[in-house]
Design a protein that fits this description.
alpha+beta; 5 helices; 12 strands; 6-stranded antiparallel beta sheet; globular; 228 residues
Length: 228
């Protein structure tokens, strides 16, 4: 279990706020905490990651992981990463780690957004493509790994847990009393009927979905997989 969080928009998030958010994320990733900031025009991109080391314990696999002008933060595990790494090696890709993280980002280089079609595993991740100036978010087929998001006038926030978003926006999110009342009345049967959470305007990215945010902050959601 790792922790991810991020932001894209016209707001400048202070280093103090970034570091306090990383401290809050430590419960999901006690082994390493790191962040990266990108800027272009009037847009700021902040990517935060806390790592629970499982595959390739060396610091060379620490995230945010940068490769070929793209930056990845990733929570989860790609089960077939060894097969995919061998596939990429046959296409003359070179690797500096033995992690599934590097395999993931190189699969993105090779296949773009369609890379998720090759993955067997569980994941929530975000890739900032500094070449295309777009943010690519994805969640695994069955939604095993959490990914929630929130938008306001300053931009788009996302994270593994709502409290990380709450920390970055530096204000209190409003409770979603409508969902709370439904849960108290109907119990667990009311949960996961849609993408609402217990906080207003905070939503889960649907399972088996990708989200693309371009340099103008336009959003494009789509399902990459539907069970047959």
């Amino acid at each position: 279990m790792c922790g991810i969080a991020g932001y894209i928009g016209n707001k400048t998030i202070s280093l103090k706020k970034i570091k306090s958010t990383l401290d809050l994320m430590r419960n999901r990733g006690p082994n390493k905490q790191k962040y990266l900031i990108y800027k272009f025009k009037n847009i700021n991109i902040v990517l935060l990651h806390t790592r629970l080391s499982i595959i390739d314990l060396d610091d060379r696999s620490v995230q945010p992981f940068v490769d070929n002008n793209c930056c990845l933060i990733f929570n989860g595990e790609i089960y077939n990463y060894i097969e995919l790494r061998n596939k990429l090696k046959r296409k003359n890709y070179k690797f500096k780690t033995t992690s599934d993280t590097e395999v993931l980002i190189k699969m993105y280089h090779e296949y773009g957004q369609q890379c998720v079609n090759y993955f067997e595993g569980m994941w929530s991740f975000a890739i900032w493509d500094n070449n295309k100036k777009q943010l690519f978010l994805s969640r695994d087929r069955f939604g095993e790994k959490p990914l929630v998001h929130f938008s306001n006038s300053s931009g788009f926030y996302f994270a593994s847990e709502t409290k990380f978003i709450n920390s970055l926006i530096n204000t209190s999110l409003e409770l979603n009393f409508n969902l709370i009342n439904k849960y108290l009345f109907c119990g667990y049967r009311i949960l996961h009927k849609n993408n609402e959470t217990y906080y207003s305007n905070v939503y889960s990215l649907p399972h088996s979905s990708n989200l693309i945010i371009d340099e103008n902050l336009n959003k494009n959601y789509y399902n990459y997989w539907v069970p047959k």
